[in-house]
Amino acid sequence: MTVESSLGEGLLVADTRDGETGDVSLIMAMNFTRGLLEKNTRLYRNVYSSVNQHRLNGLVKDMQSFVKSDSRTLTILTDADIYRVDPFEFADWEMNNDLFFVAIDENFHPKNMMLWDYWGVEFLNVNGKVYPRNSSWGNLYYNFYMYTPDLADYDVSQMVVCGTYYYAVPYVFDENKNRFLQVNSRYDGFLQFREQNPGLLFDVNNVGAYDAIYMGEGENAQLMTVFKAEKGNDYWLAAMQTKEEDSGSNLPKGRYVLTNCPGINEAVGFAASPISTDFYYATKDQIYTIALGDSQNVTAESRYTVDRDRDGEITSLMMWRGEYGRMNVSSETSSTGMTTQNAQYRMLIVTTYNESTGEGKVLTIPIVKLTSGTLEPNRDIHGRYEGFGRITKVAYNKVGN
User: Fold this and answer.
1) In the predicted model, is pLDDT for residue 390 greater than 60?
2) What single string gives the DSSP state of each residue in 161-206?
3) What three-state secondary structure class fits 49?
4) I need a surface site. Which of 29, 102, 142, 165 has the fewest CB within 10 A?
5) Per-residue pLDDT tens over the stretch 118-144
6) Alpha carbon 51 to chain centroid distance?
7) Within its chain, how far is the Cα of 172 from the centroid?
């Protein structure tokens, strides 16, 4: 006889109600969970504290679930701690230095994570250094941090895996030398790109005095990175090819000037589309779409204005990448006025917070026309999940291979 947990695939929602401690809830719904109908939505509130009888120390910055063969983990990062829990039961397993082969002597400052799913490798960014973990044979521990080809000190801010399955490749941005780096095939260090020819849109080995504030995957597995000037309010979007062999002249594909886009200096989130040239960003009250093309000067068009009285202000934005989520969209030919479609790469997840009521919400907004980035106009069929505190992070709880 076996006992299966009722907790499974869905959307993890980390929130806070006191501004000092965090908790994690799980939404299992049609938008995020395979096989569920709209009427079967299940919301497990504060599941972490309910299971472990304590809240997370600090606010959740990132979290990532990972199932490969017999290995399963959910890693949660707060401002100062790293927690590993069971993604099926949410029970505490280990934390901080118990997760490493070699203890980290300095204070923990966790930043973010990424997953090289096909190869079963998880990367954890602590204090700007990247630690890999291969899940083979149930390995739960992170190795010593990875090195650069020139053995120079580095400070990673953003990182992401571009591409799918066998062709996926992890990339990071090093703030010390303002450069892109690629994870090598042995996942114990980075590869440095060839010296770039003069006259390109930007130099992947030195983009200048800019901070990377977002990194995601665009059309044709392009690496999309938003940069902000270290001094001043200059913003731009770098599009970098990741499939072609590096010849020193073919990696930069676009340098889009964002400085004049409305509200860009107040952006609370960005999202790229792996299947279209759409690019999105959100301010506290609006979602904008940018249609990327040959011109480096782009125009942002407002596609959504939040109902502040009902939902408060927008606090984050992300593209849904899960394989099995579905969404409702308007349909003139349907007797019900709507139809259900696959949501992968076609649904934005938006979080909001109403300061006066202290309530956070998760909204799901379908993208109904690629390239232009047109969003579903009928708000009555947007997904809406209410009753949270201030949401600090959402993530896909993937519990299957």
Assistant:
1) yes
2) EESSGGG-EEEEEETTTTEEEEE-TTSSBEEPPPPPPTTSS--TT-
3) helix
4) 165
5) 898 999 999 999 999 998 777 889 999
6) 26
7) 14
Give me the torsion for CA of 295, 300, 301, 304, rounded to 10°. Answer: 140
Q: How many CA atoms lie within 13 A of 151 on its CB side?
A: 0
Alpha carbon distances (Å) from 394 to 14, 58, 133, 319: 6, 16, 22, 11
Q: Which CA distances in Å does 150 have to 29, 106, 155, 186, 190?
A: 47, 23, 14, 17, 10
User: pLDDT category, 4, cuts 50, 70, 90?
Assistant: very low
Determine phi and psi for 51, rounding to 5 degrees.
-80, -40
Helix (H) or strand (E) holding 44: strand 42-44
Are the CB atoms for 7 and 89 separated by under 8 Å? Answer: yes
**CA angle, corner 113, sides to 137 and 121, nearest 5?**
25
Is 131:100 a contact under the CB 8 Å cutoff?
yes
**pLDDT over 90 (residue 243):** no
| CB-CB contact of 146 with 188 (8 Å) | yes
DSSP per residue over 111-179, as a string? EEEEEEGGGTEEEEEETTEEEEEE-GGG---B-SPPB-TT-----EEEEEEESSGGG-EEEEEETTTTE
